[in-house]
Amino acid sequence: MTTPLIRPDLVSSPDGPFLAAAELTQSESRATPSHSHARGQLMGALSGLASIGFDKQQWVVPATHAIWIPPHCVHSVRSYGPFSGWSVFITEERCESLPRQARAIKTTPLLREAVRRAASWPGIELDATQTRIAEVIVDELAASKEESLGLPSPADPRLVRITDALGGNLADNRRLEEWAIWAGLAPRTLSRRFVTETGMTFAQWRQQARLLRALELVADGIPVTTIALELGYDNVSAFIDMFRRALGTTPGRYLAVAAPENRRSG
């Protein structure tokens, strides 16, 4: 049985403090099946990697980022190996000014420090100082910009056949035209339907799939050279450039940022 991250009443009830937080450090993988709760949840990672499933999308939570889950939004959670992270739960009433849809955000040092402080509170009504810190967390979330850390799934069976094949072998570098022939549709149709059903071009979808898989492998400590080859890159430099463009840092620096956070939380 999975041990609750935080007291159930601080997740599902409008009573008590309008904001509650908790930190989690674990040595093994953890999986929580599809569920929802009355409060909105902001889930962040300090080290390691977790993924969150939303209907037909799978999102990842790498260190330095967080996922906002609005109230009553059905989702599942899975962590990969050793993981350290945190969650903030905000009453539905206070979520009125917050994003109505799930989104990924890049966490700021101010947000992380405020959450760390909030995670030490006993779960009773907030005093004046605690209220100011809680308001900072809400303000940081409200002002955050959306980041792209999700991978939408198409509905068309022909596109699903392609995405399933790519998911099984991300090193497959066949061009769009070759995939179209393989799936039995015209290249223009494939191109158009990919954008319509996922909001991404075929090339963007494949790169996003590779990025999310790269984050899992980086979190598992796999060497960068091995990751680049597994994902179909001709050389390590090309993979590092992709990673930097997507997350604003290299795989090595990404781990270096996460490691101090892990030490502090342990």
TrEMBL record:
It comes from the Bacteria. The keyword Transcription regulation applies. InterPro entries: Homeodomain-like_sf (IPR009057), HTH_AraC (IPR018060), HTH_AraC-typ_CS (IPR018062), RmlC-like_jellyroll (IPR014710), RmlC_Cupin_sf (IPR011051), Tscrpt_reg_AraC-type_HTH (IPR020449). Pfam families: HTH_18. Residues 160-257 form the HTH araC/xylS-type domain. Keywords: DNA-binding, Transcription, Transcription regulation. Gene3D superfamilies: Homeodomain-like (1.10.10.60), Jelly Rolls (2.60.120.10). PANTHER family: HTH-TYPE TRANSCRIPTIONAL REGULATOR NIMR, TRANSCRIPTIONAL REGULATOR-RELATED. This is Helix-turn-helix transcriptional regulator. It comes from Paraburkholderia agricolaris.
